Fold each of these.
Amino acid sequence: MFSYQKRLMYPINIKKKDLKMAKYLVTQYGGPNGELNAALRYLNQRYTMPDNKGKALLNDIGTEELSHVEMLQTMIYQLTKDASVEELIKAGIGSNYTEHGMSFFPTDSFGVPYQATFESTGDVLADLYEDMAAEQKARTVYENLIDMTNDPDILGPLLWLRQREIVHFNLFKELLEHYKSNLK
């Protein structure tokens, strides 16, 4: 079903360690408005779409969201590379190190572990409205993250990810309009 290409959708090459930014980025990995939640939402909802058009779109976007998880993991790894335990503690991510070493566990930026919090009602229109709202929330989080850095190596991927949220919103909106016109 999936075809994995061993490259990121957007190149990431962060040269400067920034543990605080890594702590903030982890929320888009495992927070309630993050990419992991979106991937699971869309891959779950695809089965209740009434036709192949909806199934294919949710499958494509859900798969792309998994690639966004990979991008965030890459960014977090590069931002924390070669950090000492003392630096991790000072940045407020010592508790992650305690449980997971240098492997970041999906959490929000407060360290609350990932919980599946997505909606999937089986009602096509309700789910698509939820999906559009999810994309808007993710866009907002990316905009807040963009406001927190001036590092071009971080800004580039964040701007790209933000733009993908806008594209996904518009694709879901088109599908919603299609179903509103064609479902009776």
Amino acid sequence: MTEITNNAVQLPIAVQQFVLHWGEMGGQWGVNRSVAQIHALLYLSDRPLNAEEISDTLRIARSNTSNSLKELLGWKLIRRVPVMGDRRDHYEAEVDLMQMLTRIAQGRKEREIDPAVAALRICTEEAKRDAAISDTARQRIVAMQDFVVTIDDWYQQMMSVQPGRLMMLIRLGKKVLAFLPKGKS
């Protein structure tokens, strides 16, 4: 449900567009639109905001704001900060883009990759013991497990790289191929 109050803050057009677009992108990534919009608003804010200000600015229900803030806190994309003279909780976003990327990647890994690795390990063990499974199915399960484990290993390696060096690696893009042996991949 949407609440529109008289306390709504008028955002500059560019900020409105960013918040709306971030909300749409969040939906594409499987994140609730309100969660993504609140994250965008806090990311662009030059000061910590309280839940009431967030609700009024985005014209969303206070309960939706509260639930969205809890989710963002769980992802460690925002934090509570004290504001002198105000007993309410105020929030600010992580603004270091590499930290933000790292936290999102870690959260997605925990929610998506880790369970896939565990499930594929069980499936592979079962496929090796099950005489009724075809060689094709067995090979494809093993190939899927190898692939997901390789992605997981790559992730672990990348998270141990210092942020500045990781950004250099990202910027290299396909130029890194020059360092690999030529021939079949």
Amino acid sequence: MSASTENVKKILSGLVKELGCEIVVVNLFTRNKTRTLQIMIERLDGSSVSIDDCERISKAVSISLDVHDPIKGKYNLEVSSTGIDRSLVSPDDFIRFSGRQVVVNTYVTKWDRKTFKGNLESADECGIKMTLDSPLPNGENAVDLMYEEICSAHIDGFKN
């Protein structure tokens, strides 16, 4: 996350929690010359995020964003569920979703690949252990990755 999206998350986290949800990801991107501030949420009680949840949180955070003005210039606000391929962004996320099928991308090539698909066996404050769907060139199917090596990760929503 950039400094501006970190600031958005910091400003809005308490408000979103009061509304029964948690911010998982904040992205600011430009597509077709239109800037979009995307806020992905999940419910604190673990149930599915509804359209009503997104609408309610969108209205509340829109007011707060107008007051605090953390993003200069025009942008569209998009509040959505994390979906079935939820991003894993913090050590707590990896720990919480241990046992699930995941896709992990690394910054640099390791063992002749940058994408690792398989079961997230365990996670701690330093990194993760995975059992891979397809073996490494050396025949091993287990890999340990440190968080600083991971550029992105998400649950493989089409497995499990």
Amino acid sequence: MSLPKKCLVDTNVPKTANLALDPATIPQDLTGCVLACVEAVEHVVKKGSLVLDYGDEIFTEYRSNLSLRGQPGVGDKFMKWVHDNRWKFPNVDRVTITKEGQSYVEFPDHDGLTRFDNSDRKFIAVANAHPAKPPVLQATDSKWWGWKDSLKEVGITVQFLCSDYVKAKYQEKIGK
């Protein structure tokens, strides 16, 4: 899989990468996904290709879900790297977003996105506000599969690291 030069990273990517700590506990349908997440996190760290919001809303979410000590997992190492380097990112890659109720001024206005998760809107607002509209790396949140076409219509790309897994889970959910 080709990874982008610049991107946003949904929190479930480093969280999924942390599952590599104990391979025996990884469900069989997630094995490839965990490896893809490890590779994505390592790519972002090596290339310094992360885009964040200036107000640290994404960073705060990372901090709530990952270890700032940088261990024991790959995702935790990512957390420490973000902490240690976020102020070194180019100014263009630290985007200002404006909170508006449960959403953001920069969140795109599209009928297909009205039910988009409030907690994930920050990623889309940042992607939309960035001049290059970088893709959002997504691992296991199957709801995003249902929004991918609407996001594409407003110029935002979601790069699914675990597309087979996410598509199957989305089909299970909508079939119920």
